[in-house]
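Exercise 7. Given the encoded structure of a 111-residue chain, write a plausible sequence.
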């Protein structure tokens, strides 16, 4: 696992939006409250209440929108973590999980 990048001007595969959205990480049957501080179609940065040890993979939930997505931990630094959403590829047996930033019909309140 990598630590939070510290280089300014990072190149990202998708644009990120600054936000404050409550979310839940469900890891090994334990629910961990967090706040999404930036969000894109590919992942997000969260701040947790206190430090928590996370598994490499877990379920990430946006409870106000009833959205759940499989996710993986990319980096962790204190109470902050970088999370990548794991999207299903076309042709797989299950449809892709919806993310908060994936559909124009599911707009997220930002700001």
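Solution.
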């Amino acid at each position: 696992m990598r630590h939070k990048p510290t280089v300014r001007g990072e190149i990202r595969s998708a644009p990120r939006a600054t936000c404050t959205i409550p979310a839940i990480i469900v890891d090994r049957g334990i629910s961990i409250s967090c706040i999404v501080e930036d969000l894109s179609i590919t992942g997000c940065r969260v701040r947790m209440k206190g430090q928590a040890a996370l598994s490499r993979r877990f379920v990430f939930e946006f409870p106000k929108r009833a959205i759940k997505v499989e996710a993986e931990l990319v980096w962790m630094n204190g109470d902050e973590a970088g999370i990548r959403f794991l999207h299903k590829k076309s042709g797989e047996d299950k449809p892709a999980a919806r993310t908060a930033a994936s559909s124009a019909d599911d707009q997220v309140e930002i700001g």
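Remark. The chain has a mean pLDDT of 78. Students should compare their own answers with the one above.
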